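Researcher: Please translate sequence to structure tokens.
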Amino acid sequence: MTTGGSHISSKVRFSTIDIMLIGVNLIWGINFSVIKITLTDLSPLSFEAVRFGLASLFILILLWVLERDLSFRREDLGRLVLLGLIGNTIAQLLFINGIARTTAGNTSLIVATAPIFVALLNLVLGMERVERRVWYSVVISFVGILLIVQGAERTLTVTDQSWIGDLLVLTGTVCWSTYTVLSKPLLQRYTPLKLLTLAMIVGTPPLVLVSIPSMKEQNWNSISLQGWLGLTYSFFFAAAIANVMYYTGISRIGSARTALYSNLTPVIAVAVAWLFLSERLALLQVLGGVLVLTSLYLARRPATVTNSNM
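Model: Translation complete:
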């Protein structure tokens, strides 16, 4: 009788999906600064209504050109409506109003909890099996974001004014996490582009309706060229293109791993500020960035397989 064993362990190979998700968070990282600048010309709700209105129109045209199919299964109608309302109406309203009421440090840390909520929702709802190494990656990534926030010397506070904003951002993060998890089963039947289109068709009209009073008060003639360019970037790249790529990531590697990439956003923001704005780069921020990248390595590392023959 002979015994033997072979230990098979694949190396991490970053594919086009990894590059795509890094691109998504590069776009979203830049978008934070773009929004901040653009909101000097537009009110928050006017900005959101126009941004998602234009993004929905663009995505709809793109779907018609590429697929020429808007059909969906009747049994999926309830889930599609829920998906659109949670991700494109409720979450956006909560985020835009929450960010205006709290600090940047609080916002960064709260949004970084999204992968935790995604993993927990997958566990509770049984939507997707989350492996142990992904749980480890979620924890490591969150610690990395905490170090980045602390390294930037941003004060993490809960004051009488900020706690409402913190609560709004946290609720928005839970909504976005739910949106991410609920997308996975539907992506088995619809392309990322079609699912995004259907979700936006459902979620954008209520967002616009809520924003009508703000849009009436907006002085559209006073918007500068910089404001229009910022709005164009935000709707075209951040709300349209990046969301298609985000959905593609969920369909390819699952919601838990895709959500982890969102924590690259502050890493990218810090790197851009260091390279182009000459901002100080603290040791804690470097360590935090390393931890976030390590978490992605662990999450994307293939499982180790051991074969034995007797």
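Researcher: Any highlights?
Model: The chain has one domain: 4-309.
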